[in-house]
């Protein structure tokens, strides 16, 4: 059983208005620059390593990719490192647009 949760776009939108989750885009940098969820950070290797070692493990974290598959693997990795409130965006950035 996975330790992360799946979140839909309709669930994420109110969450972004009510709290400040860390939103991480794990697509390649070219696609991130072409468009991303407002305030999302591009999850490059350096940021990933920094967050895994020093990040706030209790802060809600939403991870997305193109269609929701790669983000599940990244969300599981963060969960394995002790992050307790991790979400993968169902159907990814394609659903957000």
UniProtKB/TrEMBL annotation:
GO molecular function per UniProt: thiosulfate-cyanide sulfurtransferase activity
Stretches assigned to the Rhodanese domain: 17-97
Record-given protein name: Thiosulfate sulfurtransferase
Superkingdom in the source lineage: Bacteria
Species in which this protein is naturally found: Marinobacterium lutimaris
Keywords, sorted A to Z: Transferase
SUPFAM superfamilies in alphabetical order: Rhodanese/Cell cycle control phosphatase
A cellular component term, taken from the record's GO annotations: cytoplasm
Pfam families to which the protein is assigned, alphabetical: Rhodanese
């Amino acid at each position: 059983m996975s330790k992360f949760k799946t979140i839909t776009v309709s669930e994420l939108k109110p969450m972004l208005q009510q709290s400040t989750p860390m939103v991480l885009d794990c697509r390649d940098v070219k696609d991130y620059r072409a468009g991303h969820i407002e305030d999302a950070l591009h999850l490059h290797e350096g940021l990933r390593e920094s967050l895994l070692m020093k990040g706030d493990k209790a802060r809600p974290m939403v991870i997305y990719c193109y269609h929701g598959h790669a983000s599940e693997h990244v969300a599981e990795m963060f969960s394995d490192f002790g992050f307790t409130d991790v979400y993968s965006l169902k159907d990814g950035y394609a659903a957000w647009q």
